[in-house]
Design goal:
The complex is a heterodimer of chains A (321) and B (587). By secondary structure, chain A is mainly α. Chain A is 75% helix and 0% strand. Chain A contains 13 helices and no strands. In chain A, helix 1 packs antiparallel against helix 13. The longest helix of chain A is centred in the middle third of the chain and has 39 residues. Chain A is globular. Chain B has 587 residues and is of the alpha+beta class. Chain B is built from 18 helices and 22 strands. In chain B, helix 12 runs antiparallel to helix 14 and helix 17 packs antiparallel against helix 18. The longest helix of chain B has 18 residues. At the A-B interface, helix 2, helix 3, helix 5, helix 7 and helix 12 of A face helix 4, strand 11, helix 8, helix 15 and helix 16 of B.
Chain lengths: 321, 587
């Protein structure tokens, strides 16, 4: 097993290099660069723009810049952000906690609720509850999460129950630990709800479908026929098989935990990676974009690996070699 | 009012610059805020769309950074300062004299107030100012856009000299009209801290946003930023050594804290204001009627403060590769027809919710150099537009399409930056009106970067609707109006085109362009305000007559704030915070 993991990780290295190079080339191929935003400013002289170009290294050949960045990245230096004039790694690190707290909460929420309600829905197939849950799921699948976010924001503005945006109050630093926790929770409620509802709904539908497929299999009918208690049929045998496709899905979810909540973070002024990357893309803040692309790729590799390991654990047919 | 009169009289005195020496202001001229009477305490929370990038003013390019820097370097932390109508007032300098020497040099002498301290308690002296001018802003190793502003007409930088601990002079090689305003308005750096950075070459790497939480920032302004939570808020506290005092001799500022709350979305900012989470709000036209309607119930003050400074216009590429298109765009009657066909009323009503004014010329209405009489105006009239086209040698074919003298159908592509709904709306209105004249306009919104690159580096564009930031001082537009200006995009000079894309054999500069070029080169050497006014009047006349840029409409400055906050006369220039050190809560 350990050998398998090590091999997968070694193979990932050239993959990641290729991905970072592709991101770099796409950024280069897109028209314009970071300095464009200053070019229509009448107070900015040609000399100043030239000086900035040189200072940021934008006068060098793209390949030279890429390999400089790559050689730095291998040594753990991911370059400087043009915009913030600070190391990219510091900027990203500052936001990781915010993003993780939000995305892990909603990831846990949507998986627990999605699987529970999906299972319930499958077992109560075509009942009134199932129908209500189906309508509920399709509505949230149909409504984009950013729209749901805006709706919740209006709810907050109308009622005053929740803050309009942000992760903490201005007085956060003067609070006790318990108050700090409550403050954070109060701010997180709406964005986490917006994120959870959307993905929970689709997970619920997947789970329902998957479990229903399995429940129609011959071995389930056989188990039932030989008088096995329904609880054991469903939760020990059927569930174990129904969960397989979900695990692959979980692998993808992991890759999205750092950048997946882009719109929601923007709407709720949540200080996470999504917002940082979004701004960097718009500003053409090159090294910040490549590094975040690289991080997403790393998470995708890890997510897939985790999914494969989990699959091997639940499904005896899968052997990792 | 008395104060304004005094400044006006002093400025007018420049006109009679008979003496070699002139007192710009003296000890009797009051500083801004000296007549304030408020009370201490409280905090004000203001929204900003994004967090600061840096706290180092020589690096800062965008308002999200400079607005925060102003808290500890501006608002009276400079030698002179401007009020909400861009009128000059003394600040740290209590007296200012300008002298023209026999060799043609100009010497500006500032007498500094004594006993002023930096926010860390260190005494402020002439050394700090001399260091700021010579070693920071005039240092070739520390490039900053400030350098471009303080250069004279030949591109030479000034030099500062210390006379004694509280007197400094700044020497220019030739008269420079804007010297007092720009040199006096420089953000001052603490020599006892920053000198080391200049010596070891790390100046531009210092005072990143991390300096806020490390409590490294030192300034002469009213507030010192002390806490920054990325993408959340920046909190600044009262500078214990701020030098300004109110009418009763109480030290300013009145507020304990100033907070910028970072809200990246205009909808969220509006909701936060309605929710009471922020105290002042720069309203957008779209939301203004709604905010105004709620004002009484919610106890807000909501109002308008005259047109803003920016400009939005349509312009054509005079150097297009196609000689046919080039000839239309260079045809003045063609441009006049477009000007007559522009339905500005419709733009104001539909795009700005009625909260705008028509714009006719390149100088802002708020500028002291604005001259309405000098402007030629083109009220919406399609008959006039048709007449102009006929005068320009155009006619119509049997299907009603406009054709030029050679029989070519007139059609072109109009672009703007995608996502700017007001500009997109303008393009649609222009397209519809020109269609009535038989001109086929294809509207293609483009990504901002792509559009800017096309306009500045290629000849591959036909017409664009775009905007430029403006200012009360027309000289700020030199890069746009000078013949070899880097933003003279409609008719780049072959030597100055950023992409070297203009072929010298097709380039033409009409006489009036050369005259505008001369006005921009000469006016900064003229100290006589009246003469400068005349020069800029001529500039406005030339632009509105020949229409290199055809101006559209300008939104009004809109504001809203909680009624118990004593915000004084907001304008587009000063915003709501120009009196920040003496803003207070009434209850």
């Amino acid at each position: 097993m350990l050998k398998y993991i090590a091999r997968r990780l070694v193979i990932a290295i050239p993959e990641l290099i290729v991905i970072s190079f592709l991101v770099f080339m796409i950024m280069e191929a897109a028209p314009g660069d970071f300095l464009d935003q200053y070019k229509l400013d009448p107070s900015m002289s040609k000399e100043t723009l030239e000086a900035m170009k040189k200072e940021l290294g934008l006068d060098q050949h793209p390949l030279v810049r890429y390999f400089k960045w790559l050689s730095g990245a291998i040594r753990g230096n991911f370059g400087y952000s043009f915009y913030y004039r600070r190391p990219v790694s510091k900027l990203i690190w500052e936001r990781v906690a915010a993003t993780l707290s939000l995305s892990l909460t909603s990831l846990a929420g949507s998986w627990i609720l999605g699987i529970a309600l999906g299972t319930f829905s499958a077992l109560k197939k075509y009942s009134l509850t199932d129908k209500i849950l189906t309508v509920f799921a399709f509505s949230f699948i149909a409504v984009p999460s950013f729209f749901l976010g805006l709706l919740l924001l209006y709810l907050a503005a109308r009622t005053g129950w929740f803050p309009i945006g942000g992760m903490i109050s201005i007085d956060h630093n003067t609070m006790t630990a318990w108050q700090k926790f409550k403050d954070l929770l109060w701010h997180m409620t709406l964005p986490a709800t917006a994120l959870t509802l959307g993905s929970m709904a689709s997970l619920m539908r997947y789970m329902r479908g998957s479990l229903l497929d399995v429940l129609n299999e011959d071995y389930v009918t056989f188990a039932r026929a030989k008088g096995m208690p329904e609880r054991i049929v469903v939760f020990k045998h059927a569930m174990r098989n129904a969960i397989n496709p979900m695990i692959t899905f979980l692998g993808f979810s992991i890759s999205g935990i750092l950048g997946g909540s882009l719109f929601i973070e923007n709407i709720f002024a949540w200080p996470g990676m999504g917002r940082l990357i979004y701004q960097a893309l718009i500003q053409k803040d090159l090294y910040l974009v490549i590094t975040s692309g690289l991080i997403s790729a790393v998470l995708l590799v890890i997510g897939n690996l985790v999914a494969d390991i989990l699959l091997a654990l639940v499904d005896p047919r899968v052997r990792l070699t | 009012m008395k104060r304004f009169l005094l400044v006006a009289v002093l400025l007018a005195a420049v006109a009679i610059f008979a003496a070699e020496k002139y007192v710009w202001f003296d000890e009797k001229t009051p500083y801004l805020g000296s007549d304030a009477a408020g009370k201490y305490g409280g905090r004000i929370v203001v929204a900003t769309l994004s967090g600061p990038r840096t706290m180092n003013y020589t690096v800062a390019k965008e308002t999200s950074s400079t607005d925060v820097i102003a808290l500890f370097m501006g608002y009276g932390g400079t030698l002179v300062e401007l009020d909400n109508y861009a009128r000059l007032h003394p600040a740290i300098a209590k007296r200012c004299e300008v002298e023209l020497t026999d060799e043609g040099k100009m010497i500006v002498t500032f007498w500094l107030r004594e006993g002023i301290r930096w926010s860390d308690g260190h005494p402020f002296t002439a050394d700090d100012f001399v260091f700021t001018v010579n070693d920071v802003y005039c240092n070739p190793n520390i490039p900053s856009s400030t350098q471009d502003v303080i250069k004279d007409s030949q591109g030479r930088l000034p030099r500062a000299e210390k006379i004694d601990d509280y007197t400094v002079r700044v020497i220019y090689e030739e008269p420079f009209r804007l010297a007092v305003r720009y040199i006096g308005g420089l953000y001052i750096w603490p020599k006892h801290i920053a000198e080391q950075w200049v010596k070891d070459g790390t100046f531009r790497e210092k005072w990143t946003v991390e300096a806020i939480n490390n409590k490294e920032l030192v300034g002469l302004g009213p507030f010192i930023p002390v806490e920054y939570v990325p993408d959340q808020y920046i909190r600044a506290v009262r500078n214990p050594y701020y030098w300004k005092k109110d009418a009763k001799g109480n030290q300013l500022p009145y507020l304990d804290e100033f907070v910028f709350k970072i809200l990246p979305d205009l909808n969220a900012i509006k909701l936060a204001f309605e929710n009471g989470e922020i105290d002042i709000y720069g309203v957008t036209a779209q939301f203004y009627p709604e905010i105004k309607a709620k004002a009484k119930k919610k106890n807000w003050v909501v109002g308008t403060g005259g047109p803003t400074y920016g400009t939005t216009f349509i312009t054509f590429n005079w150097n297009h590769d196609d000689p046919v298109k080039r000839s239309w765009f260079r045809n003045e009657y063609f441009r006049k027809a477009v000007a007559y066909a522009m339905d500005k009323e419709a733009m104001i009503d539909t795009l700005l919710a009625g909260l705008g004014v028509a714009q006719w010329g390149p100088v802002s209405v708020l500028s002291p150099f604005y001259n309405d009489d000098a402007l030629r105006k083109y009220p919406y009239d399609l008959d006039y537009a048709r007449m102009m086209l006929q005068l320009g040698g155009f006619s119509w074919d049997k299907d009603g399409n406009l054709i030029d003298a050679q029989g070519n159908k007139v059609e072109f592509i109009l672009s703007t930056n995608a996502g700017n709904t007001v500009r997109e709306g303008m393009c649609n209105i222009i397209r519809d009106e020109l269609a009535k004249l038989g001109i086929k306009v294809t509207f293609v919104p483009l990504d901002f970067n792509l559009l800017v690159n096309k306009m500045l580096n290629t000849t591959d564009w036909e017409a664009v609707v775009i905007g430029l930031t403006g200012s009360d001082e027309p000289q700020g537009g030199r890069n746009v109006w000078a013949q070899k200006g880097t933003l003279h995009f409609w008719n780049f000079h072959p030597d100055a085109a950023p992409g070297k894309q203009i072929k010298p054999e097709i380039y033409e500069a009409p006489d009036w362009e050369l005259e505008i070029d001369r006005i921009f080169a000469e006016n900064v050497k003229v100290l006589d305000q009246k003469k400068v006014y005349e020069m800029f009047s001529r500039f406005q006349e030339l632009v509105s007559e020949h229409l290199p840029l055809i101006y559209t409409v300008q939104q009004l400055y809109l504001y809203a704030h909680k009624a118990d906050l004593n915000i004084i006369e907001p304008t587009a220039f000063g915003g709501m915070l120009w009196t920040l050190p003496w803003i207070y809560w009434k209850k």
